[in-house]
Amino acid sequence: MTEGTGPGGGPYGGAPPGGGGSYGSGPHQGGGPHGGGPYGGGPYGNGPYGGGPQGGGPYGGGPYGWGGWPPPPPKPGVIPLGPLGLSDILTGAFATFGRYWKQLFGVTVVVYAVAALVVAAAAGLAYAVAGDDLRHLFDLPSGQDPDWDDLRPLVIPFAGLCAFAVLVLLAATAMVQAVCPAIAQEAVLGRRTTFGAVWRRALARVPAVLGTVVLIGLIGLLPVALLLLGIGATVLTYAVAEAQWAGWLMALGFLGALAAAPLATWLWIRYSLASTVAVTETQGATASLRRSAALVRGSWWRIFGICLLVYLMAGFAGMVIRQLLTLLGLLPGMFTAGDIGPEASPGAIALGIGGYLLLALIGQLVSQVITTTFPQLVLALLYVDQRIRKENLAPALVEAASAPAPS
Fold first, then answer.
1. Sign of the CA dihedral 37, 40, 41, 46?
2. In this structure, how many other beta carbons lie within 10 angstroms of the beta carbon of residue 246?
3. Burial level of 249, CB count in 10 A (0-12/13-18/19+)?
4. Which residue range(s) make up the domain with 319?
5. Is residue 67, in this structure, part of any structural domain at all?
6. Domain-embedded: residue 19
7. If DSSP states are collapsed to H, E and C, what string results for the chain?
8. How many domains does the chain contain in total?
9. Tens digits of per-residue pLDDT, 334-386?
10. End-to-end alpha-carbon separation of the chain, Å?
């Protein structure tokens, strides 16, 4: 596996010449002062799998002290630098969210706001192209159904707008998913970071992360595609031939979706660390997928259980926040002096509706930030945990945490 050359060299992401990063070094990257891995002999430090000096424990020379009990792992940041349990991962994710919320919220708000403006501009352009045809469609006489000649001029602009909106949303999602590992790296080492540093680091890795998002998304859409294919075939067959057996096609599509769901879930977990690898190790999309598969191997059920719990937690928290802010906007007198009655002025009505929509928008935005970023922070910590367990990354992290922060 080759070393990337992306930004954020040194102990993060790409490695400087002659060395590797505490995160960025892959399992076969050389460089260190002793001709082996980035921090000594062997592929990951001294010994065949890294660690401290020969004959010592994982955090220093000599056998474990304290009557044979190992010392607690150091904790320069949000997690102890040792194999992590569920509580360590959740606590670390919450701590990262609390310490770096400005960067998380700032980047997410900017990304989704820009995406919304771009899609709105594209919608305005589509309306400028097909506005006359759309108005003609609504001006049809009462009871007259539109025919193909009425709909045809709208197909290309509408389809193009939908495709463009999907691409913009995928790019925004990739940017947010690139931000979380970049922040988690600093959180693990206990270092401060800024909005600009996070933005630059994440932006440089967006193409690779976008590739992983698209590939993993296609895997997740497989059961849905089979189900929609069965429904579409059923409708088309019945519309053309009115065959009595058309319903069997829908049943086959449903059974195909059920059969594909376990495979899609297995592949999704297998490649769940790919976005983190793309940012942390500056790998390309396909290399990140292979690296994720190697890290997940042997721990699939554990990672599946943690991911299921975390996505349920994030979804529930986002739903509660969204509903609370929406209900808050419905309270009488929230944005006006009293209830909006039948004699209310247009200004009072506009203020009440505008305030409600504003709270609903804020609730949706906060919910989006939580449901998007919190699971990605957990996946970034799972990546660190897997490398600690499989590759003994802890000594390299201890060394990086004690080194001066890069400018």
1. negative
2. 17
3. buried
4. 91-402
5. no
6. no
7. CCCCCCCCCCCCCCCCCCCCCCCCCCCCCCCCCCCCECCECCCCECCCCCECCCCCECCECCCCCCCCCCCCCCCCCCCCCCCCCHHHHHHHHHHHHHHCHHHHHHHHHHHHHHHHHHHHHHHHHHHHHHHHHHHHHHCCCCCCCCCHHHHHHHHHHHHHHHHHHHHHHHHHHHHHHHHHHHHHHHHHHCCCCCHHHHHHHHHHHHHHHHHHHHHHHHHHHHHHHHHHHHHHHHHHHHHHHCCCCHHHHHHHHHHHHHHHHHHHHHHHHHCCCHHHHHHHCCCCHHHHHHHHHHHHCCCHHHHHHHHHHHHHHHHHHHHHHHHHHHHHHHCCCCCCCCCCCCCCCHHHHHHHHHHHHHHHHHHHHHHHHHHHHHHHHHHHHHHHHHHHHHHCCHHHHHHHHHCCCCC
8. 1
9. 555 445 555 555 655 666 666 667 777 888 888 888 888 999 999 999 999 99
10. 28
**Cross-strand pairs, 40:** 37
Is the CB of residue 27 less than 8 Å from the CB of residue 1?
A: yes
Q: What share of the chain is helix, strand, coil (3-state, %, to 5)?
A: 65, 0, 30
Tell me the C-alpha distance between 373 and 318, whole Å: 11
Using alpha carbons, select from 288, 295, 299 the residue that is nearest to residue 174: 288
Q: Are 158 and 370 in contact, with CB atoms under 8 Å apart?
A: no
Asked if residue 239 is part of any domain, the answer here is yes
Query: Is the pLDDT score of 111 beyond 80?
Result: yes
Closest listed residue to residue 355, CA positions, set 375, 372, 333, 374: 333
Q: Is 18 within a domain? A: no
What percent of the chain has pLDDT above 70? 63
Decide if 41 contacts 235 (C-beta within 8 A): no
